[in-house]
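Q: Structure tokens for this one, please.
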Amino acid sequence: FSTSCFHRGGGVAWVSLVEGIPLLESVQRLRGMLDRGELIGMRKRIEAQSALHESLAAVCHGALMSHSGGTALWGRANELTEETIRHNQIGLLSFDTLSSFTEELLKTGWSQPELESAGVRRSIFAGLPHDWAALVMPVRDDRKKVLGFTNLILPGPDHLLLIPTHVLPSLGWDRLVIRSSRAALGIQGAEPLLLTSAPLDAVLLWQQGFASAVAPVRHWGERNLRRIRAMNAKLIYVASVEFLRSDDFMSLLSMLGSDASRLSIIEMPNGLTVADYLRKHGAQALRARLNAAVPAVQVWKA
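A: Here is the predicted structure, written as tokens:
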């Protein structure tokens, strides 16, 4: 059978509904079918893909670390310290990097169909100028396996994902850029989660000591908001005044639903991003604003 993974647990829930059995029994039955070879899953394909992405993350990181003056090419990225770059395995992904990486895999015995199946596709080169490059950070799942890469400078096109949806559903990209396991676990006394829309802003906040900063890989959606609602009792959104007047902010409140009462707002003045504010006023001033965060309900009424 074939069933989409986008809805209600995918194949596990599908078998449970069709056979009228509990979810646990459904899991056990499918596990047995996989072990006996009666069902061919995508685990091996995903494992191969993860290994390739891990290798590519290392290649990209090495390219950035060895690229003389490379961070200067990226404007705001030159504010990243070497420690930040190393800790988050930030790297330089370019046309040349992708091309040489693919050629090296073919030389070491991978076939083109195997690469296509694992997500390294020649189609990712289509339309890319030879001088194309991006500053990227690997995005990992809860087991630290690389899912793909997020562009830290600009919203990345789909080819940066390098993952075909038939291997890993695109909803898997409703993920978070998060650093603090203490905040993620909602441990008592943990700092409020600081929400921002840009992965680079979250990285810059980490660098300034705000370990509970969180950003979506691409954009805020119901799935990643559902994840953060389970992490901590208090949420603080760091945003410009313009954003707070936008339809996107109203959509955010709508997706939060009753949990919008847990959300407070820090307004960045005069169109400043959080990175701009840190650059201009410093971390101490931002911390003072944290203490003066305004409940979102008040902002919405205003």
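A few notes: Confidence is low (pLDDT under 50) at residues 68-72, 156-171. DSSP finds 14 helices and nine strands in the chain.
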